[in-house]
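Reproducibility note. Readers wishing to regenerate the assembly model reported in the main text can use the exact inputs given here. Chain order matters: entities are listed in the order in which they were concatenated for prediction.
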Amino acid sequence: MTRLWRQFRRKHHTGNASLFPMIFLFALCLSLPGPARAALEEEKAILASGEYEDVIKRLEAVLAKSPENGEAIRMMLQARLDVGDYSRVLQQGEELLQRRRDSTIAESAAEAAMRLGQYDRAVGLLEGVPTVRADWLRGLLAQQKGQKQTAKAARERIVARWTQGPPLPPAERGLVADALAELGKFEEANQLYREAVEANPKDPSLKAKWGRLLLRKYNLAESEGLFREALELNTRHTGALLGMAELAASRWESQVPGTLERILQINPNLAEARVMLARVLLEHDDYSDAATELDQALQVNPLLLEAWSLRAAAEYLQASPSAVEQEWIPRILRENPSYGKVFADLGDFAVLKRQYGAAVEFYRRAVQTDPDLSQAESSLGINLFRLGKEEEALAILEKAYHQDPYNVWTVNTLRLMDSFRNYDSFGTSRFRVKLHQKESTVLRPYVEELLEKSIQDLSRRYRFVPEQKVVFEMYPDHEDFAVRTLGMPGLGALGATFGAVVAMDSPSARPRGEFHWGSTLWHELAHVISLGITDNRVPRWFTEGLSVYEENHARPGWGDPMNGGIVQALKRFRLIPLAELNSAFIRPRSPLMVPFAYFESGLICEFIAEKYGFPKILSLLNSYQKNQDDVAAFREVFGLSLEEFDKQFRDYARQQTFGFAKAVDFQWAGQDRTMEEIRQEVAKHPDNFFAQLHLAQALSARSQFEEAIAHAQAAKELFPPFVDEGNPYTLLADGYEALGRKEKAISELREWKEQKGRDPETFKRLAKLLKEAGHLDEAIQTLEQALYISVFDVEIHQWLGEWSLENSDPQDAIREFQVLLALDPPDKAEAHYRLATAYRAVSDGEKARQQVLAALEIAPGFRPAQKLLLELSSDKKPY
Amino acid sequence: MGLAKAMAHDLMENFPRGGTRNRNRKRLRWWSVCWLVLVAGFHPETSIAAPQAGSFTYAVVVTGLDGDPEYGKLIQAWSKDLYSLLKRDGIAQDRLFWLAANRQEGVYAESRREQITQLLGNLATRIRPQDGFQLFLIGHGSYDGYDYRFHIPGSDLTASQWNEMLGRIRAERQIIVNMTSSSGASLTPWRQKGRVVITSTTSGRERNFSVFPRYFTEALQNPASDADKNQAISVLEAFQYASREVTRYYESLKRLATEHALLEDVGEGEGVREPNPNNGQGLLASATILRHLGDSAAVETPDTRELRAKRRQLEEAIEQLKYRKASMNTAVYQQQLEKLLLDLARIQQRLDEMEETQN
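Running the prediction on these inputs yields the following structure tokens for the assembly.
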């Protein structure tokens, strides 16, 4: 009642005489007999809870008895709008408007017309309607046609009404908030939504709209909270469900299609849901289903520019640039000359296909067409940055920041760029390298050497040399790397390549021993090659597969081991069909799927190289360069369909994964059984890997080494790739060492290393054993391999320095002692002294003198350094 | 050597506690003392700095409850290592005591309150002012906002209760190393003049299991912790080594460090993470040797005495030069440093030759 009175007061104050019949109508509503009002209260509750079909039936019954019941009519129109029965709302609304002037009916009819693409008809229906909602609809209609000034004027009228007029009811305050947001006044919009929701906490639409605003401004957590609150009030609220779908899409979660299908069951004509579904399908290269969705959306609204825009994107993805440029873009711009979003959409899909150069050009056109598209401006800056064009990117991102200071991608990237003052930059013959100052001295020698080696090796075998110098960056903070890659923190990957720009975690970004940075570097450099050869047209699965294949073959022991996660995924998914492999990278169904997709892609490349020969890999790259898809490329190169290829690959994969890791029974992975239970299991199932392993561990702990060796050997043979803590190799080495058979221990640890063992301490143990056994070269080599896992290990550098000197290799010793000093070792005086001896060995007396003085400055009484100083000074006069 | 000791003692006695002296003087004294003490050398039996003739070192290692079995293994292993090191370093059997929650070889008694009280009570009657006293606590501790507790079988011992027992120990040179979780809360109650207190955490709120004892023990075994190469590992060097390695440990795991060790040796400070002349902490710790790495002192003759005196002068000159480094031209500094270092090396060479001849 208060609401009606306020509406009346507000409308009365506007002085519009045409509202008089409405006042009468409200009075009529108020004078309805008690039971009728009570009945409508029930209907309102049903409508609010989302039982649209039920409420429509009930209202039809009410209207059959009282055809002029205004409240029932309005509710009926709203319910039909909610289920997408737009044609009927439009027809019914127009009929009613012939009999009476009612602004709510006019608004509903206009909204229906707008949703059907009948924009002029909608504008006509709103003529003379002075309400907030009418202006809100006018704003949307003008926006559809690219009439920015008209849209702005409509929104300013709404805001003026709020600031200058009497208080508005919560639902209309929500519309004011929406208008404020469209005018770029986001903080005021947020505040107003808060007030409106406080005033009417039971309105799910307000919460959903507020949530959409927060989502638009990158506040994902709070937007999700609001969507959930809205859905608690109405589980079928399409606005809130759409918000949840957008949220999931922004997180690249796999449940997006499911949520959208649920929305379409409630409202099959909701264009936003159809368009979003089509977008997801296009992301999965499912062009046919995407087209079906877009057709359905266009049947509802033939002028839906968002759908036309995705039509253009679909043509782009299917390599029909003429259809994009000559058909869709002109058609869209004829309808709305400032519809820059089509270029933004094309840019987004180009990024998805790693066509960063093309994406930049699309984003440029997007902001030229609609300078207000701040997100496109931001994407332009980020993608210029990905192409290594830092200066231009910085200027563009600063502009984007002024347009939208809330854009987290813009802000994060600018912050990262600011932090570049803390990085050392240097060039090599083929790279422009950026390393953080705090670790540059330590990393530089190894990074520089590996970069040059990797590009030389890959270029030779793939017959491709990148045209420009490759930008290579390493980030000690993983979140900085994630921002460099996505503009957002939270990325799980270790490295990323954008054509000729490579960014990756620095070794210090990950716990020691978990990250083989050398292997990752090689992996990323392989991307530079495969992307370069194909002009970035190589499918995701193949570029990843090739990179995995390359790192596996770069050096013995490189590449990721087949760990427990891969075995679990193998047991769960078996193999992902080739046709679905790309999707496993983009929207995985489970977190296990992404590492598994890498593994399987690598295995496919291995299979191709083994069965068909490496040149076929080059042929495939050639096919992709010609813009062929997987089906065409496999037909051309192997004469096989994807299904036929899958069939061939399956047998190979089974063999390479130890019969899909048959011996690995995760029920036995835990160490919670008694010795007796384990013994019984081993007797019953000698092919149970974990049982054999646990038995070996238990026996080793009891120093029963002979027996432990037998079971560890059995475990090793059952599943050789297991190199994690408690692996059979170290158990065997323990046993052999205890029995005094050091050469056997060495041999086991060598095998562990080749099987991609990662523990730096085991590397050190092997190196020590090798040195003790007189294999100094191999010991040094082992330590050098350990550096790719644990480059900040003081002991490794110290040993390498000392052993290199021992091995008459003072140049390497110099490098190692220099790095050691950069690591702030506990014994600095000793490190300076050792470096001095290495310099002396290469006859660099001056540097030797500097270093020995540095040692003695710390420890003036350090005898060996004193002796060296005297020798260097050739001054042995007696005192 | 006698002169060095006397000078060290004198300088330590005059070391400023408050802000009454100017800072430059304080820095100069701090470093001067360091070199004097470090060049002096120590006999294992007199491993507390500046002890008087006939003094002894007493050491007590107390291992608390295991907590989780995983921690228990570590606590026991570190305690055993520490006990073995002290034993190897020459502390006599009847002056070295290891109390632990679990019986094993070397354990003197169970680490129950009654046993600890009894032992410290006995030691209070035996230890003289000129003796040295060392206490090492390893295990779990806690802090309830009022008092620190060391977790042992039976009733725990609070910081106040420890303080009462330690107060009866008359040794003028004491080292207390509390390597438990929440040990930071014990620093203030335990600090006193002539006592170095090390805690593995900054406050009682750092409650996680501490890995500091692992690196403190490692420091005593690793010659690398002897940063100034004087063949002796001081308390300060062991503390610095352990602190650095604890930091490295957390960094290597990409984990936020949950412990930050403190040292206090003035008797009235808050304890610091990086003792240095500027904060006035570390003097006593640098002069207090925990482990001797080299041979004992050589025979003295009039010639060697003269050479050693010259060596001390040169060492002092080097320290003074280093102190002035920041205000000097780099080339001039390097030139002067090189000259002094060369002179020092020549004297050392001569001394070595003389000692060789005598031997």
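We highlight two features of this model. The first helix of chain B runs from residue 2 to 13. Residues 299-359 of chain B form one domain.
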